[in-house]
## 1
Amino acid sequence: MDLSVIVVNFGVADYVRRCVASLLAERPIDARCGPIEIIVVDNFSTAEERQRVRALDGPSVRVLALDDNIGYAGALAAGLERAHGRRLAFLNPDTWVMPGALAAMADVFDRESGVGAVAPITWFDEDRTVMHPPHAMPGIANSTWRMAATRSRVARRCLDRLRLAFRWRYWLAREPIDVPMLTGSCILTSRSVVDLVGPPDPSYPLYFEDADWCRRVRDARLRLVAHPGSHVVHYYSVSTNRHRDEAARRHRVSRERYFRKWAGGAGWAFERWLERVAESNSAACRDQGGFEDLGDRVDTPRIALPGRGAARSLVEIAGEPSFELPAGAVVTSGALEFSTSTWRHLWPADYFVRSIDADSLRVTGRWRFRRADDPRMDEPAR
């Protein structure tokens, strides 16, 4: 077997079925990948969910039903134990693999030297209008910068500028680029790399397992590469949005585990102090002045962008006004309008949008709106 793809499900059978369908469609066109083995690990979903997932079991798909919810990393490890491929891919259930994505990642893995893992560019929608952001490696240094940004306007502007430059280098890349970490929504690696650095650590119940694994890959002096020639749709946190309280609890446990492992007990204590200081000073960062208010929206707003004569506008969309981890879009028309798929998967909340000059990275416009409740939300895209 050349490639084993492991998909972990918890309560999102409709998305898993779409994900598997996209993988099965890859088989005839991804000759460079060879035979694909698909392993779906069900993390103790409801009886109805299990029945729907088990219906996928067949010659091309193996379903592993666990007797307990052992967390995302634990389910990945369980799938890895049963995988036969020399290449391995970890895939979130709320993803849809675009044609040729796996082959493109496999090609980079084989062609470039010193690669430990490859990830695609991930999108919110099938029309590829809004991209997910790259992630910085969690650590004391990043937390210190975030705390400083809550205390100093100069530090806040400096950090924002650094983040902007990092994100737009990633979003506008045309060739594979090295990145500090890969997010766990879609990662392609090899059996030899997993044998060298180990599988994702099952002691992380949810979140931070990807950062931990990427740290181990980098410690082995291997590269983490994002490939703009590979595209995957990631509808983002569909399962966790349905179980928010439990996801938040597991996030806290995983965060402590991560900082204790990589920074020690003293580092974890310092991280908690940084968080408390940042929270006590965060009112300034939450200042929502300067945004044009577009009000509550059931249907997508159409945002006219400054500089209509420009060839393109760079746009960021975030759930907080500091734009710490925004999605991005390159808009070649004079306005931003979300695709139906992207809009359907925006959770009811306040959202902030800003346009940026591509050359100077200067902010040219800012807007805010609230995504209102809508019965059409959170349905699997057709």
## 2
Amino acid sequence: MNRDDFFKLLTSGQWSNAACMGYVIKACKSLEYSDKEISALLQALNMMFSNFTFEEAEEEYRSY
């Protein structure tokens, strides 16, 4: 999936915070993060969901 496909998915209404967290967990496991590291990252991610808008998150991703 390229970036354009990713943005189409994000705006399709098929996206959810749970789906995002699932992708993060899978990525962390593929990098062999410990359960403690994964939990810390998920906690930080959940805080970002609460403190930033979808548009702010998208802009952060696009500017990376």
## 3
Amino acid sequence: MQKLGKQTLKLEHPVTILETASIVGPKEANGPLAKYFDQCLEDEFWGESTWEKAESKIIKETVNIVIGKSKLPQDKLEYCFAGDLLNQCISSSFGLRELNIPFYGIFGACSTFVEGMGLGAVFIESGAAENLLCCTSSHFCSAEKQFRFPLELGNQRPPSSQWTVTGSGSAILSKSGTGPYITHITTGKIVDMGIKDANNMGAAMAPAALDTLISHFKDTGRKPSYYDAIITGDLGYVGKEILIEMAETKGYQIKSNYNDCGVMIFDKATQDTHSGGSGCACIGTVFSGYWYQQLKERKYKKILLMATGALTNSTTAQQGESIPGIAHAVSIEV
């Protein structure tokens, strides 16, 4: 690996994204990307007694699907990097406890999917593994219960709020294969601009996305036009517009080739999701479903995939703390 600047790694031997899989909930199944997901659920419980158990089942079955699609024997997967939004990452650890693969539970809030891809790519490039698994999950009902208010209260959601995606995305990374390839990894820094509104995560995370975006361009010497698409994870409509405006003030024009998974996954006009989607599964499902297919079909050949996360919990919110943000990026090319 070659270190570029302070935050970016260039992989001497680009790592193949061998296969992906995704499962989504009923609201996501009614959105514009439904045909790209491997499975769409009819209800949020999926036969389980609690939302938390349902989320664990979702990540478990998504992993089973991606292993089946890859045609790799399970014993050829040497590590698993997984995480979610619930306390102590219980969705991942309970859902994957029977997987029998060396396991790293990771947490980057909604940036976890790309964090796992970056760490996994470093493992493969270093020779520590030849094949490994990266996966994340989230669930609207379990996330609302933990971070905001019980659904039974029927609280009014402001226009800036986002809808946590119910689902799971999974990717298998490999030393061998014909791409798409992870070529660069830009690790983000914690950025806190003092935003305290838990119903405006887009505003809290956009500064971190800007910081990572600028660092990536400076470290690599690339410009926004190098990429066919720049994709963030879950800034939503509010955060997306903030990032576009902030990038422009720094001399970077990204509006023409930039989109956000939280904007893409729901139909704003018909689904009442306000500022769009969020959650670990937001970028996980949209990349594993839509974007991976676009890359495989060579409709896009170079994308910058950047996942954003709000590093907060219910305790810090109750104590009046601000919301720190983080953003991790990987360059994916064919």
## 4
Amino acid sequence: MLTSLYSQRALIWAFANRDFATRYRSSVLGWAWSLIQPLATLIVFAAVFSIVFRIQAPPLGSGNGTSYAAFLFTGIVTWNLFSGLLNLSMTQLKSNGELLKKVQFPAWAPILGASIVQLIQVLLEMIVLVAMFLFLRNVGWTWILALPILLGAMLFAQGIGLMLSILNARFGDVQYIVAVVLGALYFLTPVLYPLSLVEGQSEALAWVIKLNPMTWYVEGMHDVMYSLVAPNWLVLLALVGGGFLTFWIGLAVFDRSSEDIGELL
């Protein structure tokens, strides 16, 4: 399957170029919206949770005080990678249904092509995040560990997205169910609050949050980007290995289940 992915790389890039050209085609601001949306969310959430609910972020790894906005945006970037890939992957089969009926090509090609475009958006968000930490003078060698953590999160999301795309093609209610689940999962992931805050108030809820795989990816990013602390190497290996395993399983399930996808669409 991995050999097939490599051999079809030109087709994947063709779908990526198509989606890249059309994502903000009718918009005046174009790709600026890819930054405006997360920054608007950052401003609103930072105001509400730091001023109204008075949530305190942990100390910066550099020792230069704290920054709830930087803590929040680190979590938002990681979550957007996961939720963006998941939602895009899930809907691509239906979006390309007419094409799949007329032309024979691997059904995962448009899914992976759209995912590349989503990764470009996350890259832009990461540039803003790095600039924020540079401004705060919160810099450390642990930043390089953000790459394997984000890679693991990307593979994890893509694997689940591939499996959900098949389910969504067969049962149209799946995308609405996933939207509800993602909404709940967002608040069960330590994006808006530090995990230590929950551990100090409810051990039961803390265990529920720790059972959420995205908690470990978000916490890993908080460690290496915000706290400038290297996570345990076993945890880092689990994040990358778990992501790759999920992607491989998702691709295998998709490959076996998509043979008659043209008829379903």
